[in-house]
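Page 42, continued from yesterday. The earlier attempt failed because a stray header line got pasted into the input along with the sequence. Redoing it now with the clean sequence only.
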Amino acid sequence: MAGDGQVGSTMPARLLTVFDPMVRLLLLAILLASVLPVTGEGRGIAQGVSNAAVFLLFFLNGLRLPRSEVLSGLGNLRMLLPLALWCFGGMALAGWGLSLAGAAILPPLVALGFLYLGILPSTVQSATAYCSLAHGNVAASVVAAALLNILGVFVSAPLFAVLAGSAGPGLDLAALGKIGLTLLLPFALGQQLQGVAGRFVRENRRLVTWLDRFAIATAVYVAFSGAVEQGVWGRIDVPAWAGLLGLVGIFLAIGFAGAWLLGGLLSLQRGDRIATLFSGGQKSIAMGAPLAVVLFPAEQAGLVLLPLITYHLLQMVVSAPLASRLARGG
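This time it went through. Structure tokens are written below.
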């Protein structure tokens, strides 16, 4: 999925973190929701705008991902299959464990957010940018992250429902229909219309990237507005915030260390191992924010998203110096 600002490998690592447009938009959306949350009758209008933005986001992703690249990338099964098992298996179980641990110190929906974080796929552009900076296999990174996102459209929600049990959203026919209409249908339409509209996407990459970011920021704003209306700043005290940061730090260590060790166990070449590191350790807010506002009511989605938002910001902080060290042969 898109949404994480792509940067050239020559840019200093610190600039990737400080000036990443998606980071700034996320912080702006949270600040705006905190000061001016959408409530009452306006929430229905905002939710409609958010749903339309999510539809556009997945339509654009369907347009931009050539089927030929997907098919050619499928040839690297030695890397892709273990990476998918790590992303949707190992990290999902880690998120489930941290959600149980967090239940003692965090509000229930925030603790549940760690399980939600665990079942999400990787970023695309961000993982690719850091892979490039670290002198990894950029082509493998693009294909791996893209395929994980396609797989995530189909498996993330059902996997979350199974692991969450009664604490999560029930996936009845209405919920499945909403997911299909909002996520799967626009992606399928984009794939079918590549021949007609694909050229527009290729020639207007900057505009399309900003449309992606707008869609994600809109979803975060609507979700976090609901959390603010529910008193998120009063319900999470200083010890709870410390616990949230600590658990996110643990999850970061599991994600990045596990992905790096996985590449070593598979005896991958260094370029592929670096691609596995960033595709396997990062989590996509471009998938997570839209899916959350589809699965949960707005007042719940904002709380569930807190671990993901925190993880997204911290993964940028971790990835930049890590990529620089790898580029130096570390």
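Notes: Residues 2-13 have pLDDT under 50 and may be disordered.
Reminder to self: strip header lines before submitting.
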